[in-house]
Fold this protein.
Amino acid sequence: MTDILKEAALMRGLLPSGARVRLAPTGIVWGEMADRLLKAGLGRPLAGGPAAFSAVEIIARSADAIHLLGPAPLDATTVWAEGEGIGAIFDQQLDLISAPRPALAGLPADRPLIMGIVNVTPDSFSDGGDFAATNDAVDHAFELLMQGADILDIGGESTRPGADPVPVTEELRRVVPVIEGIRRRSGAKRPVISVDTRRSDVMRAALKAGADIVNDVTGLADPESRRIVAEAKVPVMLMHMRGEPQTMQSEAQYDFTPLQMLEELEQRVLEAEQAGIPRERIVVDPGIGFAKNTDQNLEVLARLGLLHGFGCTVLLGASRKKMIANISRDEPAKERVPGSLAIALAGVEQGVQIVRVHDVAETVQALKVWAGIAGRR
């Protein structure tokens, strides 16, 4: 206890009164090590398990600055928080980080899920035109299922930086037949389908055609979209972005990217809740590559744990993105698979529950090997 008090004392006075505190779980372990940590009372489950965490980084905003404290052990930070008069807030955030996440569209929350991308577009940055025809897109969807995809994400509009908007009628023409085709071919064996759209009319039609989840890069910025999702009682994926795809990179200006991303995404979560969408049906996505440059993306990826403070399932989508080429040797999109796997594994290590990828077979293999190692630590 003496050591705990010493560590807590070292942190005393480092945080100005009234600062808004956020917690990012660190010291995350898996398998036998997680079991031992929990049995010893030295950690807490991360999102209900099977991972556990033993420490937190404290990130706070005051009137004139951003403050980074730790990482420090849970017992010491708990004593410190009580001494600072923020014990109740601290405990509330820890409870949200630790709470079990519900099944998503019937899919279990006890392992990372893989969302396979099906772009029914001529201009997507990675595979534009490869599956623009309905039959090709449906065939590709079933190939991804065979490779191990848990969710199929069907999109009919590219939202890459600089992309031009697609008329709603054209997006409907691309997306709805693919969802209907998957449903017809799958029969009673019903795969989970997500529709990747920012248009309320497309959401409505896709749900009617058989989609199970809405994935919106704007985070349901449109009140009509919130109403549709609330009435349909389906899960929704809320992503962080600023502006429109054509102009969003001009808005990549932050004082501390992970914290501002979190604050702005929190507003979308609250709007969804106010519209009648319970938090257990909300998935949060940090929006890698959306209104963020390479350094800002890396800052966010280094602190993905902050997203667990929402008490929501966390989705990470960075497959084949330009940041990989910027860090490496400017490879074209289809040659960015190793970098995509590195990001996916880094995300899963921080407790991300869903990874959205183009290369499903490679991701399945990487996660199986990673799980084999993590389970034996």
